[in-house]
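STRUCTURE REQUEST FORM
Protein name: Histone deacetylase
Source organism: Laspinema palackyanum D2a
Requested output: C-alpha coordinates
Priority: standard
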Amino acid sequence: MDLPIVYHPDYVAPLPPSHRFPMEKFRLLYEMLLGDRVVTPEQCHAPELPPQDWIESVHDPEYVQAYCQGTLDPKAQRRIGLPWTEAIAHRTCISVGGAVLTAKLALEYGLACNTAGGTHHAFPDFGSGFCIFNDLAIAARMIQKLAGIRKVLIVDLDVHQGDGTAYIFRNDPDVFTFSLHCEANFPGRKQTSDLDVPLPVGMEDDEYLQTVAGYLPDLLGQFQPDLVLYDAGVDVHAGDRLGKLALSDTGIFRRDMQVLSTCLAAKYPVACVIGGGYCEDMRGLVYRHSLLHRAAAQLYRQYRL
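Status: completed
Returned output:
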Protein backbone atom coordinates (compact mmCIF):
# COMPACT_ATOMS: atom_id res chain seq x y z
CA MET A 1 0.00 0.00 0.00
CA ASP A 2 1.06 3.60 -0.63
CA LEU A 3 1.05 6.46 1.88
CA PRO A 4 -2.44 6.91 3.39
CA ILE A 5 -3.92 10.38 2.74
CA VAL A 6 -7.04 11.72 4.44
CA TYR A 7 -9.33 14.13 2.57
CA HIS A 8 -12.99 15.07 2.43
CA PRO A 9 -14.69 17.52 0.01
CA ASP A 10 -16.38 19.09 3.03
CA TYR A 11 -13.01 20.31 4.30
CA VAL A 12 -14.05 23.41 2.31
CA ALA A 13 -17.05 25.51 3.28
CA PRO A 14 -18.10 28.86 1.79
CA LEU A 15 -16.75 32.06 3.34
CA PRO A 16 -17.42 35.71 2.46
CA PRO A 17 -15.22 36.70 -0.54
CA SER A 18 -13.17 39.20 1.47
CA HIS A 19 -12.41 36.82 4.35
CA ARG A 20 -8.70 36.34 5.03
CA PHE A 21 -8.86 32.64 5.95
CA PRO A 22 -7.69 30.67 2.86
CA MET A 23 -10.46 28.06 2.93
CA GLU A 24 -9.97 26.96 -0.68
CA LYS A 25 -6.45 25.70 0.06
CA PHE A 26 -7.74 22.33 1.28
CA ARG A 27 -9.43 21.45 -2.01
CA LEU A 28 -6.57 22.91 -4.04
CA LEU A 29 -4.04 20.90 -2.05
CA TYR A 30 -5.86 17.67 -2.80
CA GLU A 31 -6.09 18.58 -6.48
CA MET A 32 -2.39 19.47 -6.64
CA LEU A 33 -1.37 16.18 -5.01
CA LEU A 34 -3.43 14.26 -7.57
CA GLY A 35 -2.35 16.45 -10.50
CA ASP A 36 1.35 16.12 -9.66
CA ARG A 37 0.90 12.37 -9.09
CA VAL A 38 2.14 12.61 -5.54
CA VAL A 39 -0.88 10.49 -4.61
CA THR A 40 -3.63 8.57 -6.39
CA PRO A 41 -7.33 8.51 -5.50
CA GLU A 42 -6.88 4.94 -4.21
CA GLN A 43 -4.62 6.22 -1.41
CA CYS A 44 -7.22 8.64 -0.12
CA HIS A 45 -9.45 7.94 2.86
CA ALA A 46 -12.57 9.97 3.67
CA PRO A 47 -13.40 10.63 7.33
CA GLU A 48 -16.89 10.37 8.77
CA LEU A 49 -18.60 12.78 11.12
CA PRO A 50 -17.35 11.99 14.62
CA PRO A 51 -19.74 11.23 17.48
CA GLN A 52 -20.27 14.27 19.66
CA ASP A 53 -18.70 12.51 22.65
CA TRP A 54 -15.37 12.44 20.75
CA ILE A 55 -15.41 16.23 20.66
CA GLU A 56 -16.57 16.36 24.28
CA SER A 57 -13.59 14.23 25.32
CA VAL A 58 -11.71 17.55 25.11
CA HIS A 59 -14.32 20.31 24.96
CA ASP A 60 -16.98 21.51 27.37
CA PRO A 61 -20.37 20.05 26.32
CA GLU A 62 -22.10 23.44 26.64
CA TYR A 63 -19.54 25.02 24.29
CA VAL A 64 -19.87 22.15 21.80
CA GLN A 65 -23.66 22.36 21.81
CA ALA A 66 -23.70 26.16 21.51
CA TYR A 67 -21.28 26.14 18.60
CA CYS A 68 -22.93 23.30 16.71
CA GLN A 69 -26.39 24.83 17.11
CA GLY A 70 -25.25 28.33 16.16
CA THR A 71 -26.15 29.87 19.53
CA LEU A 72 -22.62 30.82 20.61
CA ASP A 73 -22.26 34.26 22.16
CA PRO A 74 -21.30 36.86 19.48
CA LYS A 75 -18.17 37.88 21.38
CA ALA A 76 -17.03 34.25 21.53
CA GLN A 77 -17.80 33.90 17.84
CA ARG A 78 -15.69 36.96 16.99
CA ARG A 79 -12.79 35.50 18.94
CA ILE A 80 -12.83 32.48 16.63
CA GLY A 81 -12.55 34.76 13.58
CA LEU A 82 -14.85 32.71 11.33
CA PRO A 83 -18.53 33.36 10.75
CA TRP A 84 -21.00 30.68 11.87
CA THR A 85 -22.86 28.74 9.20
CA GLU A 86 -24.16 25.19 9.14
CA ALA A 87 -21.57 24.40 6.47
CA ILE A 88 -18.67 25.69 8.56
CA ALA A 89 -19.95 23.85 11.64
CA HIS A 90 -20.14 20.66 9.58
CA ARG A 91 -16.67 21.32 8.15
CA THR A 92 -15.30 21.77 11.67
CA CYS A 93 -16.64 18.40 12.80
CA ILE A 94 -15.59 16.48 9.67
CA SER A 95 -12.08 17.88 10.10
CA VAL A 96 -11.98 16.45 13.63
CA GLY A 97 -12.97 13.09 12.17
CA GLY A 98 -10.12 13.48 9.69
CA ALA A 99 -7.54 13.99 12.42
CA VAL A 100 -8.69 10.90 14.31
CA LEU A 101 -8.71 8.83 11.10
CA THR A 102 -5.18 10.05 10.30
CA ALA A 103 -4.02 8.91 13.74
CA LYS A 104 -5.64 5.48 13.23
CA LEU A 105 -3.99 5.06 9.83
CA ALA A 106 -0.61 6.14 11.19
CA LEU A 107 -0.74 3.43 13.83
CA GLU A 108 -1.72 0.87 11.21
CA TYR A 109 0.75 1.86 8.47
CA GLY A 110 3.48 3.81 10.25
CA LEU A 111 2.76 7.16 8.57
CA ALA A 112 -0.34 9.03 7.40
CA CYS A 113 -1.12 12.60 6.30
CA ASN A 114 -4.25 14.66 6.57
CA THR A 115 -4.97 17.43 4.06
CA ALA A 116 -6.32 19.75 6.76
CA GLY A 117 -6.04 20.16 10.53
CA GLY A 118 -3.88 21.75 13.16
CA THR A 119 -6.51 23.75 15.08
CA HIS A 120 -4.26 24.20 18.09
CA HIS A 121 -5.70 27.51 19.41
CA ALA A 122 -9.00 25.94 20.52
CA PHE A 123 -9.41 25.65 24.31
CA PRO A 124 -11.87 23.42 26.16
CA ASP A 125 -14.59 26.09 26.37
CA PHE A 126 -13.77 28.59 23.62
CA GLY A 127 -12.28 28.90 20.17
CA SER A 128 -9.64 31.33 18.95
CA GLY A 129 -7.51 32.17 15.93
CA PHE A 130 -9.65 30.35 13.31
CA CYS A 131 -9.73 27.27 15.59
CA ILE A 132 -13.06 25.97 16.89
CA PHE A 133 -12.42 22.43 18.13
CA ASN A 134 -8.86 21.25 18.81
CA ASP A 135 -8.36 18.38 16.37
CA LEU A 136 -4.88 17.55 17.67
CA ALA A 137 -6.13 17.20 21.23
CA ILE A 138 -9.20 15.20 20.23
CA ALA A 139 -7.09 12.89 18.05
CA ALA A 140 -4.67 12.32 20.93
CA ARG A 141 -7.44 11.53 23.42
CA MET A 142 -9.47 9.36 21.09
CA ILE A 143 -6.55 7.35 19.71
CA GLN A 144 -5.58 6.53 23.28
CA LYS A 145 -9.08 5.23 23.84
CA LEU A 146 -9.77 3.59 20.48
CA ALA A 147 -6.36 1.99 19.92
CA GLY A 148 -5.41 1.36 23.54
CA ILE A 149 -2.15 3.28 23.34
CA ARG A 150 -0.81 5.42 26.15
CA LYS A 151 1.77 8.03 25.16
CA VAL A 152 1.30 10.68 22.46
CA LEU A 153 3.88 13.27 21.48
CA ILE A 154 2.55 16.41 19.78
CA VAL A 155 5.25 18.09 17.68
CA ASP A 156 3.85 21.53 16.81
CA LEU A 157 5.99 23.40 14.29
CA ASP A 158 3.33 25.91 13.28
CA VAL A 159 4.74 29.45 13.62
CA HIS A 160 2.22 30.17 16.41
CA GLN A 161 2.39 28.52 19.82
CA GLY A 162 -0.04 25.63 20.28
CA ASP A 163 -1.59 27.36 23.26
CA GLY A 164 -4.90 25.49 23.37
CA THR A 165 -3.18 22.12 23.12
CA ALA A 166 -0.70 23.08 25.84
CA TYR A 167 -3.52 24.11 28.17
CA ILE A 168 -5.62 20.99 27.52
CA PHE A 169 -2.75 18.62 28.38
CA ARG A 170 -1.13 20.75 31.11
CA ASN A 171 -1.71 18.05 33.75
CA ASP A 172 -1.54 14.97 31.52
CA PRO A 173 1.79 13.09 31.72
CA ASP A 174 0.79 10.80 28.84
CA VAL A 175 0.60 13.58 26.24
CA PHE A 176 3.77 15.61 25.71
CA THR A 177 3.33 18.98 23.98
CA PHE A 178 6.34 20.40 22.10
CA SER A 179 5.86 23.82 20.48
CA LEU A 180 8.55 25.51 18.36
CA HIS A 181 7.18 28.94 17.48
CA CYS A 182 7.98 32.59 16.83
CA GLU A 183 8.16 34.32 20.21
CA ALA A 184 6.81 37.69 18.99
CA ASN A 185 3.60 36.40 17.45
CA PHE A 186 0.03 35.34 18.23
CA PRO A 187 -1.10 34.41 20.82
CA GLY A 188 -0.09 37.39 22.93
CA ARG A 189 -0.56 35.37 26.09
CA LYS A 190 1.35 32.11 25.80
CA GLN A 191 0.50 28.93 27.70
CA THR A 192 3.08 26.51 29.09
CA SER A 193 3.76 23.49 26.87
CA ASP A 194 5.82 20.58 28.17
CA LEU A 195 8.55 22.04 25.96
CA ASP A 196 8.36 25.53 24.46
CA VAL A 197 11.09 26.78 22.12
CA PRO A 198 10.44 30.44 21.23
CA LEU A 199 12.27 31.62 18.11
CA PRO A 200 13.43 35.14 17.19
CA VAL A 201 11.77 37.06 14.36
CA GLY A 202 13.43 36.47 10.98
CA MET A 203 15.04 33.06 11.67
CA GLU A 204 16.08 31.35 8.41
CA ASP A 205 16.44 27.76 7.20
CA ASP A 206 19.70 26.49 8.63
CA GLU A 207 19.31 27.88 12.13
CA TYR A 208 15.72 26.64 12.27
CA LEU A 209 16.68 23.12 11.18
CA GLN A 210 19.56 23.03 13.65
CA THR A 211 17.11 23.99 16.39
CA VAL A 212 14.75 21.15 15.49
CA ALA A 213 17.69 18.73 15.41
CA GLY A 214 18.76 19.96 18.83
CA TYR A 215 15.50 18.90 20.47
CA LEU A 216 13.54 16.23 18.57
CA PRO A 217 15.85 13.17 18.73
CA ASP A 218 16.41 13.54 22.48
CA LEU A 219 12.73 14.14 23.07
CA LEU A 220 11.77 10.97 21.22
CA GLY A 221 14.33 8.95 23.15
CA GLN A 222 13.24 10.30 26.51
CA PHE A 223 9.46 10.21 26.06
CA GLN A 224 9.24 7.16 23.75
CA PRO A 225 5.73 7.87 22.41
CA ASP A 226 3.36 5.31 20.96
CA LEU A 227 2.36 7.92 18.35
CA VAL A 228 3.65 11.28 17.14
CA LEU A 229 1.15 13.92 16.00
CA TYR A 230 2.98 16.38 13.73
CA ASP A 231 1.57 19.86 13.02
CA ALA A 232 3.48 20.94 9.90
CA GLY A 233 2.39 24.57 9.66
CA VAL A 234 3.88 26.44 6.70
CA ASP A 235 3.34 29.89 8.23
CA VAL A 236 7.06 29.72 9.08
CA HIS A 237 7.68 30.78 5.45
CA ALA A 238 9.29 34.14 4.69
CA GLY A 239 6.31 35.15 2.54
CA ASP A 240 3.61 34.32 5.09
CA ARG A 241 1.64 37.36 6.15
CA LEU A 242 1.04 36.08 9.70
CA GLY A 243 4.39 34.39 10.28
CA LYS A 244 7.47 36.56 11.03
CA LEU A 245 9.98 33.76 10.39
CA ALA A 246 11.94 33.47 7.13
CA LEU A 247 12.06 29.87 5.91
CA SER A 248 12.18 29.11 2.19
CA ASP A 249 10.23 26.41 0.33
CA THR A 250 13.38 24.30 0.44
CA GLY A 251 13.69 24.89 4.17
CA ILE A 252 10.13 23.70 4.77
CA PHE A 253 10.70 20.55 2.71
CA ARG A 254 13.95 19.87 4.60
CA ARG A 255 12.12 20.40 7.90
CA ASP A 256 9.41 17.90 7.01
CA MET A 257 11.96 15.37 5.78
CA GLN A 258 13.95 15.86 8.98
CA VAL A 259 11.02 15.47 11.36
CA LEU A 260 9.53 12.46 9.59
CA SER A 261 12.81 10.64 9.01
CA THR A 262 13.90 11.20 12.62
CA CYS A 263 10.66 9.62 13.85
CA LEU A 264 10.51 6.80 11.29
CA ALA A 265 14.15 5.82 11.71
CA ALA A 266 13.44 5.32 15.41
CA LYS A 267 10.24 3.39 14.53
CA TYR A 268 7.75 5.91 15.89
CA PRO A 269 4.54 6.17 13.82
CA VAL A 270 3.59 9.68 12.70
CA ALA A 271 0.19 11.26 11.95
CA CYS A 272 0.50 14.60 10.14
CA VAL A 273 -1.79 17.63 9.86
CA ILE A 274 -1.01 20.63 7.68
CA GLY A 275 -1.32 23.50 10.17
CA GLY A 276 -1.41 27.18 9.31
CA GLY A 277 -0.43 29.07 6.19
CA TYR A 278 -1.59 32.51 5.07
CA CYS A 279 -0.48 34.05 1.79
CA GLU A 280 -1.98 36.08 -1.06
CA ASP A 281 -0.28 33.74 -3.54
CA MET A 282 -2.66 30.81 -3.19
CA ARG A 283 -0.75 28.50 -5.53
CA GLY A 284 2.48 29.15 -3.66
CA LEU A 285 0.73 28.48 -0.36
CA VAL A 286 -0.81 25.23 -1.56
CA TYR A 287 2.55 24.09 -2.92
CA ARG A 288 4.16 24.71 0.47
CA HIS A 289 1.48 22.62 2.17
CA SER A 290 2.08 19.86 -0.39
CA LEU A 291 5.73 19.62 0.65
CA LEU A 292 4.63 17.61 3.71
CA HIS A 293 2.92 15.02 1.51
CA ARG A 294 5.81 14.95 -0.98
CA ALA A 295 8.27 14.30 1.85
CA ALA A 296 5.99 11.71 3.45
CA ALA A 297 5.42 9.85 0.16
CA GLN A 298 9.17 9.67 -0.44
CA LEU A 299 9.93 8.43 3.07
CA TYR A 300 7.03 5.97 3.06
CA ARG A 301 8.67 4.25 0.09
CA GLN A 302 12.17 4.58 1.53
CA TYR A 303 11.21 2.94 4.82
CA ARG A 304 9.00 0.38 3.04
CA LEU A 305 6.11 0.99 5.40
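Reviewer notes: The chain has a mean pLDDT of 97. The chain has ten helices and eight strands.
Form closed.
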